[in-house]
Amino acid sequence: MSFADIAALTLHDVKNRLAQLAGRAEARGDLATMREAMEAADTLTRLLTYYRSDIGSLALEIDGHSPADLAAECARETSAAGSCKVEVDCSAAPTLWFYDETLVRMVLANALQNAKRYARGRITIEVAERDGFLEFIVRDDGDGFPDQVLADDTGTATRVTREGTGLGLRLARRIAEMHENAGKRGLIRLENAGGAVFRLLLPK
Amino acid sequence: MAIASEYTNTRLLIIDDMPEMRSSMRSQVTNLGMNRTSLAGSVREALDLLKETRFDIILCDYYLGGSTDGQQFLEFVRRRKIISRSTIFIMITAEKGYESVITAAECMPDDYLLKPFTADALKSRIDRLLDKKRRLARIDRLQDQELWEEIIPGCNEIIATKDKYLLDAMRIKGNALIVTHRYDEAVEFYRSALKMRSMPWAKLGLAKALQGNGDHEQAKQTLNEIVTETPRFLAAYDALGSLHGDVGDTEGALRILDRACEISPNALNRHRAIADIAEKTADFGRIEKAMSMVVEKTRNSPLRDLNDYAKLGTALTELGDAGKAIAVLEEAKTSFKDAADSTLLAAVESVAQHKAGNPELAQKALERAVQGDTKSLSEAAKLAVAKACLVHGRRDEAERMLKHIVQNNPGQTALHASITQMMKTHGDPERAELLISSSNAEVVQLNNDAVKMGQAGDLKAAAAMLREAAERLPGNPQIVANAAYALFLDIYSNGLDPDKLSDAQRYQQMLLVKDRHHSKLGEISDIAAKVQRKFDLPATS
Question: Which of A 31-90 lie inside 8 A of B, CB atoms?
Fold first, then answer.
């Protein structure tokens, strides 16, 4: 068995144990610990997904979905988690769009986890159709992205820091780029405008 | 904090082999206000609960510990109609897409949920799925009842609103067009769907519609495209396999199904399909391999199937390993105790014992196989009994049964071919072709006799004769059509008879189900309408 195979199996095992830990914490009403365990498990899920994409076994399952539903679901999950107020604006959202919902959910959940970590009190999710792309936009009112993250367009140079490994962003870019249709490709755009602004663009 | 919630009456079933996961999920849903939750630690426990209770939602972990996984379980309960379309089935997986393979639409879960998840995430998903089920409730009910004609207008209503259930309605409509053989419409429908986006399910639908229209080349090309673009879309391999099989390319069919088995080694029905195809060319080595695997995987599981054991027993016997065949059949005998099952096993055992050189045991098994009414048996069991008779030199009995199978399954060339094959190997090769042709000739003769009788004015006798034939050969559309027509005509001319009327209507319905394009249907509904007017009967649906 290769190191990668053992690593993948171990990740599964640790994830299951984190899930049980989360369950126990939830049962005794310790929601903070539950969240922590859940987020750790989510990180491992991202790592596994990244590994699958690396070895070319991450298959995209494109179908029509309601982006407004997905945004509402993610917002609900984030607001339930703590003190932040999450607002959703779907006024310019299309009824249906084509993407892999599980993967897009993973990207959004990660963006929201980050926003929650840095926001002062307010997060917004906007869903809109612009120029042949669907945009999921996550805004927070924190200090914004560090300059080196903004400067690094490809995400490949992002260094491992105390705040994280850059795994979330790398995976987000990969997932966005896997979404391709009629010569157009999905992408991630980052900017600072009164806080961090994370954009996931998916082609029509 | 028990909240009086919208879920007070929601019945939920949690299936997971790990006790801690079960109780953790239960406390999550209790927090959401669901108090009517049942827990199952195994497939067997789940099936027992499903026998007694109709659940609104099933949460099922993909890994269930034993030899059965969540996907096999789902296929089993959907194919056997143990759960209806109104039940929401959520598959819980550890990793995105790694376990999930895309098979036939009716065997897909309503949603996948990645572990671990919070109660809030679960609630969001459940609420979305409940909304969807509510929107599709009427269509789902019609699908459960297989009223495909009525489904199409129902789908059109949703499609016209262009709401977020547009694609769900489109999928169902496309399938209904195929099931009702409206292939031209289906081709056009799927082509326009594919203009929205290249979706594997729409491509698969297009391929099936093309195949229905006899355009095998284009169908094959479309399916090959799916296999290249979406390698995990296994439904395309299955369709490609059946396409190869239809045009007689058994080797090609087996090759493509083998590839699908490499991707998803646990799909029992695919191994069964492989055995069915191998049966056409009497490739007992392949049958043995496929059925050994299925028997192995379902041993002691509620998903085990008697037919698998019978096929394995037959294959082993044909391969010269009668001893092993007898052992397999002995195991089956203790595992399947239902009397209805025993005939098939006894027939297969009879041949195996004969080959093993145990004439007395063979004779005993044969007696068990031929006792009782053979009419209610499955076609597979009838074939097995006929074969056992042939092997024991009881030719007349065997031919009588085979003739009945041929007459009840007209036009099923694959079945006819396997009967010819059986006669050639075990009976009289000269009589093999004759049996098929004389069986068909008898049906033609019967119809002609009835028509003559009717023309000579004896409608009553003609109808009685066809009615008797329809009871004997309910699978023969020509007989059933003529019986319906003759009975209505008899009633119209000779007066109302409630028994005759109910049979006439039943035959008309049987014919509709079997072939809604049957050329005789128009005439039948005309005469049925005349009967209705003449005797002032309430309109039937």
Answer: 34, 37-38, 41, 45, 48-49, 52, 57-59, 61-64, 66, 69, 72-73, 76-77, 80
Question: What's the CA angle centered on A102, arms A99 and A105, to 5 degrees?
Answer: 90
Q: How close A151 gets to chain B, by Cα (Å)?
A: 31
Residues B381-396, mean pLDDT to the nearest whole number: 93
β-pair partners for A124: A87, A139
Q: Report pLDDT for B98.
A: 62
So what's the pLDDT on residue B229? Answer: 87
pTM recorded for the entire structure: 0.83
Nearest-CB residue to B164 (from A18, A73, A95): A95
How far is A107 from chain B, CA to nearest CA, in Å?
Answer: 13
Q: Note the ipTM here.
A: 0.90
Angle at B223 between CA B221 and CA B226, to 5 degrees: 115
From the list B290, B289, B283, B343, the residue with the least C-alpha distance to B318 is B283
* Distance in Å, alpha carbon of B18 to nearest chain A alpha carbon: 10
Residue of A nearest to B230 (CA): A59
In chain A, the DSSP E strands lie at 63-65, 85-92, 97-99, 122-130, 133-140, 180-181, 184-185, 187-192, 196-203
Question: Residue B373 — very low, low, confident or very high, per pLDDT cuts 50/70/90?
Answer: confident
pLDDT tens sequence across B155-175: 999 999 999 999 999 999 999
β-strands A122-130, A180-181 pairing: unpaired
pLDDT digits (tens, 9 = 90+) for A29-71: 888 899 899 989 999 999 989 988 988 888 888 899 999 999 9
- Residue B76's pLDDT band, with cuts at 50, 70 and 90, is very high
CB contact under 8 A, B164 and A66: yes
Tokens 């649906």 — which residue? B541
pLDDT in tens, A129-145: 999 999 999 999 999 99
With beta carbons under 8 A apart, name residues in chain A contacting B27: 23, 26-27
Contact A59 B230 (CB under 8 A): yes
- Kindly determine whether residue A73 and residue B125, on different chains, have CB atoms separated by under 8 Å: yes
Q: Which residues pair with A133 in a beta bridge?
A: A130, A203
- Closest residue to B112, CB basis, from A45, A98, A102: A102
Q: How far apart are CA B194 and CA B207, in angstroms?
A: 12
